[in-house]
Design brief:
It is a single chain. With 124 residues, this protein is of the alpha+beta class. 19% of the residues lie in helices and 40% in strands. The chain is built from one helix and nine strands; from the N terminus they run H-E-E-E-E-E-E-E-E-E.
């Protein structure tokens, strides 16, 4: 019994911070996307899951989409609308790159990049 107690204490000292770090990482927000049609084109709004206001907003000028979506996650994105080409949620919200009706969106915490060239900074 005396030999087991120190082993249990050491395991607890190691396990508790690991479990706490994992819980913190999974509690952070993930990216969500809304897309709707307007007279100017498809309006794209990117949110962090716990935010009311969008982090990024852009208009895909002259484009219309068949399916409008409201705050869909990567897993909920309708296949007819878009396809995820890369994602990394190691440290959320992470990075989400997707093709949305022929337009590439690269969503990161520092910026939204449209078609590899147009960079949209954080909303004020």
């Amino acid at each position: 019994m005396r030999k087991i107690a120190p082993i249990i204490i050491v395991l607890a000292i190691i396990a508790i911070p690991i479990v706490a770090m994992f819980a913190w990482m999974t509690s952070r927000p993930s990216w969500q996307i809304s897309v709707r049609n307007s007279p100017q084109g498809a309006i794209v709004e990117v949110y962090k899951s716990n935010d009311v206001r969008p982090t990024y907003t852009t208009v895909l000028t002259g484009q219309l989409i068949d399916t409008e979506i409201e705050r869909a996650t990567r897993m909920e994105l309708p296949a007819e609308l878009g396809k995820t080409t890369f994602h990394d949620e190691t440290l959320r919200p992470g990075r989400w790159r997707l093709m949305l009706d022929g337009t590439e969106l690269d969503i990161m915490e520092r910026a939204l990049i449209v078609d590899g060239t147009t960079e949209i900074a954080l909303q004020d």
